[in-house]
Design a protein that fits this description.
Elements lengths: L5 H5 L4 E6 L6 H12 L5 E6 L6 H8 L3 E4 L19 E6 L15 E4 L2 H5 L6 E3 L19 E4 L9 H7 L6 E6 L7 H11 L5 E5 L4 H5 L4 E4 L13 H8 L4 E4 L15 E4 L2 H13 L1 H16 L5 H12 L1
Parallel strand pairs: 1-2, 1-3, 3-4, 4-5, 5-6, 7-8, 7-10, 8-9, 10-11, 11-12
Helix pairs in contact: 2-11
């Protein structure tokens, strides 16, 4: 993002969201979009590195947005603009990392937003708040039963996807669609391309590019799975895609995790939790081989989706207003 008129873009802002790779439509991009669209009482804008090439500090010193909301967790040289601000904005940091870590902005943050209780425990209690993610699927049709194979969404990166995962899914007698092939998001073009080539030996597996409208692609498949085989951390959170799938009424089969996203699934009602490879394959096979069970899961998933609300923007809005 490179605004054509910088001062106009940043003028009269309540909240400036600062992140990386917004244009890639990552989960964090979707969270920021949800806030900008639905926390309507405040005026928002977003700066995305590394695309934003201007010197941010003098622009902010002139326009003075009231809150700067940081959405990344690693050390980056781009954060240097914070040291050159001549005014004192409120600083908010959301800890988005898949596994719990302390905020890198704890010393300067007015509020640290923790997406689950495990992050809350390891961040300063006086300035930390717990706000779980939610998703905005407004305008997207609800899932209906079909026989169009299983949908998956993973980055083709070494921490999320290895050849053994393709070996596992190849044992299922149905078409498998892996959305997520992208050299940039895989952090390695070699690993991304290797997985795509490796998958070609399996006639039932198709590796598809990461897409910006995955929510709309999901509803065209029978059910959704989320399986990060290479990660044994029990506190690793479910992806935002799990929340989107459940909110759209898809049955979901996934690994059992410690916290985030797990409350969206009721085991045996709108999906299943698996503890290992054998259980995971077993639940998938049950759904594929038992048409009555599949239709029951779909009906339950649709009713369950009716009760899911997009509560995150209102909670963020209340938090923003509390520090202004």
């Amino acid at each position: 993002m490179q605004p054509s008129n910088e001062l106009d873009y940043f003028a009269d802002l309540d909240v400036l969201h600062v992140m990386f790779w917004y244009e890639k439509r990552t989960s964090i991009s979707k969270i920021v979009d949800n806030l900008m669209t639905n926390a309507r009482q405040l005026r928002h804008a977003v700066v995305s590195f590394p695309d934003f090439q201007l010197d941010l500090a003098p622009i902010l010193n002139e326009t003075q947005p009231k809150i700067i909301h940081m959405h990344y967790g690693g050390e980056h040289p781009q954060s240097e603009f914070l040291k050159r601000l001549s005014y004192k904005p409120r600083i908010v940091h959301t800890v988005h990392t898949p596994a719990p870590v302390p905020s890198i902005f704890a010393d300067i943050a007015d509020r640290i937003v923790c997406i689950d209780e495990f992050r809350l425990r390891i961040n300063p209690g006086a300035k930390s708040v717990w706000i779980e993610n939610s998703v905005d699927v407004s305008g997207i049709p609800r899932h209906t039963p079909n026989q169009n194979g299983i949908c998956n969404a993973l980055r083709f990166s070494a921490d999320q996807m290895q050849p053994a995962l393709l070996d596992l899914f190849a044992k299922l007698d149905t078409k498998i669609y892996f959305y997520g092939a992208d050299e940039f998001l895989a952090f390695s073009s070699e690993h991304n391309n290797y997985l795509c080539e490796y998958a070609k030996q399996f006639p039932n597996i198709e590796c598809l590019p990461y897409c910006h409208d995955l929510e709309r692609r999901m509803i065209g498949h029978s059910f959704f799975t989320y399986y990060v085989q290479n990660n044994n951390n029990p506190l690793w959170c479910h992806g935002l895609n799990v929340m989107e799938a459940v909110s759209l009424g898809l049955p979901v089969v996934t690994l059992k995790r410690g916290q985030l996203g797990q409350q969206y699934i009721v085991h045996g009602h709108n999906g299943y939790f698996a503890n290992n490879d054998e259980e995971f394959l077993g639940y998938c096979k049950q759904i594929l081989e038992n048409a009555g069970l599949y239709l029951e899961l779909c009906a339950n998933a649709s009713r369950h989706a009716d009760g899911i609300t997009n509560s995150m923007p209102q909670k963020y809005q209340e938090m923003y207003l509390s520090i202004l």
